[in-house]
Amino acid sequence: MCPAIVPEGQKRGYLVPIGGAEDKEAKPTILKRFTEISGGKKSRILVIPTASRLDDTGRMYQTLFKRLGAGEVNYTPITSREDCDNPEYAALCDEATGIFITGGNQLRLSTILGGTAVAQAIRRGNAAGVHIAGTSAGASIMAQHMMAGGPGDSGAREGGATLAPGLGLTNSAIIDQHFSERNRIGRLLSAVAYNPYLFGIGVDEDTAAFIDSDNVIEVVGSGGVTIVDGSGLKYSSLSQARSGEALGLLGLKLDILHEGCHYDLNTREAFPPAEDGQGHCNISVGD
Amino acid sequence: MCPAIVPEGQKRGYLVPIGGAEDKEAKPTILKRFTEISGGKKSRILVIPTASRLDDTGRMYQTLFKRLGAGEVNYTPITSREDCDNPEYAALCDEATGIFITGGNQLRLSTILGGTAVAQAIRRGNAAGVHIAGTSAGASIMAQHMMAGGPGDSGAREGGATLAPGLGLTNSAIIDQHFSERNRIGRLLSAVAYNPYLFGIGVDEDTAAFIDSDNVIEVVGSGGVTIVDGSGLKYSSLSQARSGEALGLLGLKLDILHEGCHYDLNTREAFPPAEDGQGHCNISVGD
Which strand (E) or helix (H) includes residue B175? Predict the structure, then answer.
């Protein structure tokens, strides 16, 4: 599904895929930043804990965002497709300034949310300026083509990635998470090989890619964000490869971004942190 | 140490780093090819099992190369630096048409062979046309800057790779092995970051990079060979990074080669397999 159309005169909200295991105590930089862009004291943050099977995930994030200075924080106890068509929950999405999708299982997210009123509200909201963050499974679900699985080693292989339709908040990239920690470059390369027009974005744990309305990424957190650009691919063996066979992929570009680096998904250019050390001061704070 | 100088009118022998776990039974393509380029029936192959602590490694490869059609096959029971200064073993190197260095521990290789008569004979031999193959540890030792170790995840980090001086048969690249299987792209990227003039070459298991005298790689085997080219790097955070910190590396090129692909280390160009399916027919057979 393509991203919802931005209404006249408005700007798309941030998309903030987080690689999982974001720091919640000592240095909660990512969650604090998300709270700030969502409006700080004036924010209304909605937590969607559907990916998780743990009962207290919604409440835990509610407490956390409150502590980080959020205004109002709600969570939806959505566990079924029926819940997703509950107008009350869709209304909570419509009223939010920021929506946070927790980790868990992204196929649980896509099978429960897909095509429901809540999914439509999230898509419509982001197009109208609501910021959407998601960690782990909540990061992968954002894409039109969602990374759903793949084997564990770091080689690019035929059948090395399973894709499923996601929420379609971006159609620029496939997003993977727990990236370096779980050695997922093989499945990301395998996924990019399917159709190299898509970027592969691999987000490490405790790291986030803040993607702004101009499609420019800024990295926040302690790990890296790996950008695989297959647009210059001059040879791929995928279409002739046998099941599980190692792929040949010639002409990939690779940028590994750390905190403060930027990447422009429109121009395919990477930028180092600003030299004054104020690398991410240009993430605009909502009001 | 720089590669030994090629004597007037001669050509350097192949360098054949193998990623470990090469097929020895069902489809021993790599070892067969090495036997062929070393002269087939007229070959004199010397196995150096020093990296391994297993007593029968030398004899096992001797039997194997014989079965694959080699002429004469010897192995040296080198286990100490003293052994390496035994003129008889250096003479075996001088007489060989192909030298095969087994797997095990590459620091055992570098600490035992380094600077001895045997190391000099291998270096001199390769410059004069002797083909040198090495699997696993035997692959890494070939480089001037040898990959000696690094942590297990696939992220590029400060301190993410330990280098040690190797045999210096090539000064174009750092060579890593068991590459996809052991998720070593992080340590290869970390190593390339030290000084991006060096290519990073990551060789998967049951896969070999046949590097000819013109510095052109051809891939043989069931896995991939990953080439990291850092020459276009426009930003690296390495020099300012704290211990263990995730690195920013902007502007890397990545080529993943499968069987039949070529890579020219001089021009930094990758080539797909030949369309007639005779991808590696141009590996010249010795006489």
Answer: strand B173-177
Q: In this model, does residue A277 exceed pLDDT 60?
A: no
Taking each helix axis from N to C end, the angle separating A29-37 and A57-67, rounded to the nearest 10 degrees, works out to 70
- Chain B positions contacting chain A at CB under 8 Å are 153-156, 179-181, 183-186, 189, 204, 207, 222-224, 228, 234-235, 237, 245-261, 270-273
Q: Are A106 and A148 in contact (CB under 8 A)?
A: yes
Calpha distance B215→B211 (Å, rounded) = 6
- Give, in order, the Cα–Cα distances in Å from A30 to each of A19, A139, B81: 11, 13, 54
Q: Is the pLDDT reported for residue A279 higher than 80?
A: no
Rounded to two decimals, the ipTM of the complex is 0.88
pLDDT band at A285 (very low <50, low <70, confident <90, very high): low
- Cβ pair A43, A71 in contact under 8 A: yes
Please list every residue in chain A whose beta carbon sits closer than 8 Å to the beta carbon of residue B249.
255-256
Mean pLDDT of chain B: 94
- Per the residue annotation, which of A43, A52, A136, A180 is the catalytic one? A136
For residue B14, pLDDT beyond 90: yes
Mean pLDDT of B263-281: 81
pLDDT > 60? residue B277? no
Residue A259: closest C-alpha in chain B: B248
Class of domain B15-264: alpha beta
Asked whether the beta carbons of residue A153 and residue B181 sit closer than 8 angstroms, the reply is yes
Cross-chain residue pair B153–A252, CB shorter than 8 Å: no
CATH architecture assignment, domain A15-262: 3-Layer(aba) Sandwich (3.40)
CB A220 within 8 A of CB A210: yes
Rounded to 5°, the CA angle A63-A76-A145 comes to 105
Shortest Cα–Cα distance, B269 to chain A (Å): 9
Chain A hits for B250, Cβ within 8 Å: 255-257, 261, 270-272
**Average pLDDT, integer, range A110-139:** 97
- Most B CBs within 10 Å: which of A226, A243, A256, as the mutation test of the B interface? A256
